[in-house]
Amino acid sequence: MVLMSDTGGGHRASAEALQAGFEQLYGDEYQVDYVDIWSNHTPYPFNQLPKTYSFMVRNSLMWRIGYYGQQPRFIHVPTQTISSLFVSKQVSAAFDKYQPDLVVSVHPLMQLVPLRVLRQQARKGGRTPVPFATVVTDLTTCHNTWFHPLVDRCFVPTEYCKRSALKNGLKEDQITVHGLPIRPAFSGKIASKNSLRKKLGLDRHLPTALLIGGGEGMGAIEQTLDALDDRLGGACQVVAICGRNKALIERLQNRDFPGGLKVKLCGFVTNMAEWMSACDATITKAGPGTIAEALICGLPLVLNGFIPCQEEGNVPFVVDNKLGRFERKPERIARILEGWFGDSREEFLQIAEQARKFEMCEEALEPKFLEAATAGCC
Ligand code: UDP
């Protein structure tokens, strides 16, 4: 039983990756269910988590206050313990329904409460608790709620996250550094760029950028399209993936691009491996899932923003490892792509090569950043 929530797109993608990975390795030996405990198995207002998240992350100051306010153990442990008094009956019913042999959490708010409920159930039944693993889906700066000393195993993507886990009381032998769980479609046999472009309705010859803002379609997607239209016009095409941002899709559907930029507009897509493999570069906020997927596909990255706190460390992670550039201003992003698809092609090819061979578990970063990231304030 994998515990996830649609706060962003990364936790669902990780849950799907684990489900598909189990199936690939073990066939039908295991049944893997992924479940949003908070949305589907808790009462109001706890079941509003994804909506609250979506609102909060768009209000930077509010999100920072909430995030850092809950960072100390002496705050989040009592807060979540009190929450569990209100939700434990329903959460317990969910475990009764799914009868898991193993629980895996891919969400920072799904450690303390489920572990507490599983232990209560075990005590009542006179048996040992169901094994519990955490799979951390942030890359560098992680919230402390990810780390609970009672988990049987904690998988972290990078050495930085391992430091945070140790700082939060986990022992060396509880932690495995293992990269991020990425859906097997990214590592399987994928069709050639040419045939994917044909299948997806893209021009086969134009340089192509993928423009995305995580599962929620965040960031300056429309302004970036305008800037690309101004500077590159018909010399390139863009796949704009708006995720669950319906308002943005509706707005863009009624837009035209006077410079002649070709735009392929998508909502939430379920074949990201195909879209990425059909493109040449990615413009994205610093979401860990999108960064990891783009690297697998060898796509140079332009990071155009980040969710405050948990994604801040991902910017130096990409820039210091020479996997891409960070630039907020749409006009400058357009200038970077103009260079990459034109005079600075050499730089572009070098970054693409570095992305392809990059090993997440062995990354190198400025020690100064490392200190800041592990102190929880970047
Ligand atoms: N994603 C997807 N379809 C979409 C938009 C996003 O499958 O239409 C996936 C994307 O491939 C990535 C995840 O959602 O795996 C986004 O995760 P990330 O960590 O980049 O950002 P988040 O949305 O969690 O903030």
Automatic annotation (TrEMBL):
Record-linked Pfam families: Glyco_tran_28_C (PF04101), MGDG_synth (PF06925)
GO molecular function, one term: 1,2-diacylglycerol 3-beta-galactosyltransferase activity
Glycosyl transferase family 28 C-terminal domain mapped to chain residues: 210-303
GO-annotated biological processes: glycolipid biosynthetic process
Enzyme class per UniProt: transferase
Domain Diacylglycerol glucosyltransferase N-terminal stretches: 11-182
Sorted UniProt keywords: Glycosyltransferase, Transferase
Membership in a protein family: Belongs to the glycosyltransferase 28 family.
Record-given protein name: monogalactosyldiacylglycerol synthase
